[in-house]
# Entry
Amino acid sequence: MRTPIIAGNWKMHKNVGESLETARQLEERVKDSSVEVVICAPFTSLAALSALGLSKVKLGAQNMYFQDQGAFTGEISAGMLLDVGCEYVVLGHSERRQIFQEDDELVNKKVVKALETGLKPILCVGETLEERRAGQTEDVVVSQTKRGLAGVAADQLANVVIAYEPVWAIGTGENCDAEDANQVIGRIRGTLAELYGSELAEQVRIQYGGSVKPGNIKEFMEQPEIDGALVGGASLDADSFTAIVQY
# Structure
């Protein structure tokens, strides 16, 4: 059975003090939860969060570069993330793809490097509103999944989490219908089966993301293919994120 994973993406929010306060609250409130809980904090807070010695709440970063070191101003390497206690890293988020023009090739390089160094990538895939209206949802997510996992070996797949995040539902207050999300995620799992075989595909956790809140988490988690959530705005508040974890 796949252990559900609930990850909070704090994006460009929270200074160090705010991050520490929220993390302390979460650690206490979700300590008895049976799901895996991750907070993906800004780079500036990661070292301080690691020093807290959290046991239930795991740390993730929101991005990384695929080189180990060098003249890459403003970038962060996988080794740096490991050094400050990260276990997970979000890669290919739609905001990285759209605002910063990251393509599938770049995302793939990051996924491969993360796995090589021992980080667990949360690979984000999802369609825009225009692509959805054109009936291209499954084509887009299948393509992004295949390209994102190019060069990933079968024995590495268990360390990959995939997040289906329809772009039109991120930060808009709109969310995908749970049954539709389940169908798309089932197609992603089918793609994994084509690439790696059904047994390995059944081990991969696939989240839903896109305006997830305490009020709608239940409908998503009742779906058989959905293994958790990548939560944006609702993860910034300890009360709402706890409610999502303990729905």
Observations:
- The two ends are 19 Å apart (CA to CA).
- The first strand starts at residue 5 and ends at 9.
- The CA atoms of residues 69 and 113 lie 12 Å apart.
